[in-house]
């Protein structure tokens, strides 16, 4: 397995109405949405099947950002809601799901197989924040899942501005408890911290091996606990204009961040939160 435990290997948009969200993200990030040729939700007890779509960032064979799925009426009635969610790599999905339950998390969808992709489970941490754990097929010919080639992975920590995710941020109501949980489940190194002042507390970096995949911070008043994802764009002002011109709203920023970059936080037309990340202009 090329990816380390805890590395993000897929991103997924759950939406009420793909006819609303697909044109929005296409305008903001230049994404293409293509049929995946499969159904999703069939084995998880969430009211499937639901048609699954690939999100692609460029022309090419391995140009994935992730996937998108329109929630069925049964899923919505069962409590599903629009959100962005990630899949974290694990060696053994069943063992990881069992550890998550033992450590106070929840298993929303017990481990199941998707033909041609691998094994996965939909879970939450002890604070109720949702994510998937996944193991791609060992013989999968799919660099987006198991390739060490950064140009074909869905998470691009640096050196790319083509719509892939560049940062993963955990917003949690109990920072110390969350850090202990993710250290145990994924083996994250959480020793590096940056103070954001007495009101906001520490910004704790999350490292899978030598690779920093993002950071965790305590939720501020009015902030919903979640995993937040920042997608890369070449210019933050152009992206901001596209958000506002296509039915979304900017709720924070532009704000300079370390690494000579700038971010905004936004809602898409369904109110789903996401971030954008770009190089800082002189």
Would you identify the CATH H-level superfamily of the largest domain?
Answer: 2,3-Dihydroxybiphenyl 1,2-Dioxygenase, domain 1
Helix content: 10-25%
Oligomer: single chain
Strand order of the largest sheet: 2-3-4-1-5-8-7-6
Terminal CA distance reads: 41 Å
Could you explain how this protein is built, in words?
The structure is a single chain. The chain has 282 residues and is an alpha+beta fold. It has two domains: 8-145, Roll (2,3-Dihydroxybiphenyl 1,2-Dioxygenase, domain 1); 166-279, 2,3-Dihydroxybiphenyl 1,2-Dioxygenase, domain 1, CATH 3.10.180.10. It has six helices and 16 strands. The chain has helices spanning 18-29, 73-77, 93-102, 143-146, 175-186, 236-245; strands at residues 8-15, 32-40, 50-56, 64-70, 83-89, 106-114, 118-124, 130-136, 165-172, 193-195, 202-208, 211-218, 226-232, 249-257, 261-267, 273-279. The strands form two sheets. Strands 2-3-4-1-5-8-7-6 form an eight-stranded mixed sheet. It has an eight-stranded mixed sheet with strand order 10-11-12-9-13-16-15-14, with helices on one face. β15 and β16 (273-279) form a beta hairpin.
